[in-house]
TrEMBL record:
This is magnesium-protoporphyrin IX monomethyl ester (oxidative) cyclase. Belongs to the AcsF family. The lineage of its organism: Eukaryota, Viridiplantae, Streptophyta, Embryophyta, Tracheophyta. Keywords: Chlorophyll biosynthesis, Iron, Metal-binding, NADP, Oxidoreductase, Photosynthesis. CDD domains: ACSF. Pfam families: Rubrerythrin. The keyword rRNA processing does not apply. It comes from Citrus sinensis. GO terms for molecular function: magnesium-protoporphyrin IX monomethyl ester (oxidative) cyclase activity; metal ion binding. Its cofactor is Fe cation. Pathway: Porphyrin-containing compound metabolism; chlorophyll biosynthesis. Its EC number is 1.14.13.81. SUPFAM superfamilies: Ferritin-like.
Length: 374
C-alpha cells in the first residue's frame, strides 16, 4: 500500500512525539537532542497516552527509542476475518472466481519489474545532510508516515498469503508477492530515515501496535482505494518534480515512477477480487458503504495533508490542488470500474456524487460500449 491515509493506512503523527504543547516539529530533548548527530529509533506505542508518556519518561538505555502517541488520525494496522476470506476464495464455493485472470496477474507479479529498482546511491545522504531546520523535520515525518503505511500493507498481505495457501494457492501467491513489494517499499523508506539518523523499529511495530478489524468486504474497499490513491499520489509528485526540478530536494521522489506501478498492480488485483465478489457491491447497503469509504478516505487524506501543508509547499505543491487532483483521478478510475460492472455484470455500484465522475461516466460508458462491440 502506499497512500498516507489514517483510515486505510497507518500514519503516525510525528509532531506529537512528546507532548501536544510542544511546537509542531519539535522532538523530545531528553531522548534526541541533536537531529544531525544522534541516531534515534522510533517506537510507536500501541498502548494508551499514559503508557506513551511513561515510556517517554523511561527511555531505554540501549537505544534512543522514542514513543509516539496515537491520535484520531493516527495510522492503524489491519486484520480481518481470515476464515471468511478462505470461503470467499474457495473455487468450489465461489464460481465467479476468474482463475484465468488471477493466473495472468500472478505472472505479472512474478515478473517482478522493480526487482532492481530500489538501489540507493550517495545522493540520498548528501541531500539529507543539506536539509536543515523545519524542512528536515518535515521530511523525517514524511518518511516515517510513508514507511509505516507501506509496512501495514506488508503485514496484511503477508498474512493473507499465508492463510489462503491451501484454499486458493494462486491468490495466496499474489498476496505474498504483494507483501514482497510492500516490504521493499517500507525498507527503502526506512533506509531514507537512516539518512536523517532515524529508523523505525518495525519489529516493535508488528508486536505492539493495535490491529483494527475490518470485515473482508471493507478490506477490499479500503485496500483498493488505498492502492489507487497511492498510485496517483506518487505519480503526481513524480511528474510535478520532473517538471520542476528545483524542488527536487531528496532523491527518493525520482523512484516514484516505477514505484507507483507496484501500487497500480496491487489496485488492479483488488479490482479483480471485487469483480469476483459482486455480492459486496450490488445491494443498497454495499452502495452506501462504498460511498462511505470513498468519502472517509478522501476526507482523511485531505485532513492529514492539510496538517502538513509545509511538506507539500516544500516540494512546490499546493496541498489543496494536489489532493483535488488525486481525488478526481481516483474517482475516474472508480467510474471505470463502475462502468465495467454496469456493463458486464448488470450492477450499479460505487457511484460518487462528483461532477467529474458523472462526466467521465458518460465518456467511459461509450468507451466500454465501443470496446465490447469490437
Ligand atoms: Fe507500497
Ligand atoms: Fe501497494
Amino acid at each position: 500500500m502506499a497512500a498516507e491515509m489514517a483510515l486505510v493506512k497507518p500514519i503516525s503523527k510525528f509532531s506529537t512525539i512528546a507532548t501536544t504543547t510542544k511546537p509542531r516539529f519539535s522532538y523530545p530533548k531528553a531522548t534526541c537532542t541533536s537531529l544531525s548527530t544522534r541516531f534515534c529509533t522510533i517506537k510507536m506505542s500501541a498502548t494508551s497516552e499514559q503508557a506513551a508518556a511513561a515510556t517517554a519518561q523511561k527511555p531505554s538505555k540501549k537505544s534512543n527509542k522514542t514513543a509516539i502517541k496515537e491520535t484520531l488520525l493516527t495510522p492503524r494496522f489491519y486484520t480481518t476475518d481470515f476464515d471468511e476470506m478462505e470461503t470467499l476464495f474457495n473455487t468450489e464455493i465461489n464460481k465467479k472466481l476468474n482463475q484465468a485472470e488471477f493466473e495472468a496477474l500472478l505472472q505479472e507479479f512474478k515478473t517482478d519489474y522493480n526487482q532492481t529498482h530500489f538501489v540507493r546511491n550517495k545522493e540520498f545522504k548528501e541531500a539529507a545532510d543539506k536539509m536543515q531546520g523545519p524542512l528536515r523535520q518535515i521530511f523525517v515525518e514524511f518518511l516515517e508516515r510513508s514507511c509505516t503505511a507501506e509496512f501495514s500493507g506488508f503485514l496484511l498481505y503477508k498474512e493473507l498469503g499465508r492463510r489462503l495457501k491451501k484454499t486458493n494457492p494462486v491468490v495466496a501467491e499474489i498476496f505474498s508477492l504483494m507483501s514482497r513489494d510492500e516490504a521493499r517499499h517500507a525498507g527503502f523508506l526506512n533506509k531514507g530515515l537512516s539518512d536523517f539518523n532515524y529508523a523505525l523499529d518495525l519489529g516493535f511495530l508488528t508486536k505492539a501496535r493495535k490491529y483494527t478489524f475490518f470485515k473482508p468486504k471493507f478490506i477490499f474497499y479500503a485496500t483498493y482505494l488505498s492502492e489507487k490513491i497511492g498510485y496517483w499520489r506518487y505519480i503526481t509528485i513524480y511528474r510535478h518534480l520532473k517538471a520542476n526540478p528545483e524542488f527536487q530536494c531528496y532523491p527518493i521522489f525520482k523512484y516514484f515512477e516505477n514505484w507507483c506501478q507496484d501500487e497500480n498492480r496491487h489496485g488492479d488485483f483488488f479490482s479483480a477480487l471485487m469483480k469476483a465478489q459482486p455480492q459486496f457491491l450490488n445491494d443498497w447497503k454495499a452502495k452506501l458503504w462504498a460511498r462511505f469509504f470513498c468519502l472517509s478516505v478522501y476526507v482523511t487524506m485531505y485532513l492529514n495533508d492539510c496538517q502538513r501543508t509545509a511538506f507539500y509547499e516544500g516540494i512546490g505543491l499546493d496541498t489543496k490542488e494536489f489532493d483535488m487532483h488525486v481525488i478526481i483521478e481516483v474517482s475516474l478510475w472508480l467510474s471505470l470500474l463502475v462502468c465495467f460492472l454496469q456493463k458486464f455484470m448488470k450492477i450499479s455500484v460505487l457511484r460518487i456524487n462528483c461532477q467529474y465522475v458523472e462526466l467521465d461516466s458518460t465518456l467511459c460508458t461509450s468507451q466500454v460500449s465501443q470496446q465490447s462491440s469490437l
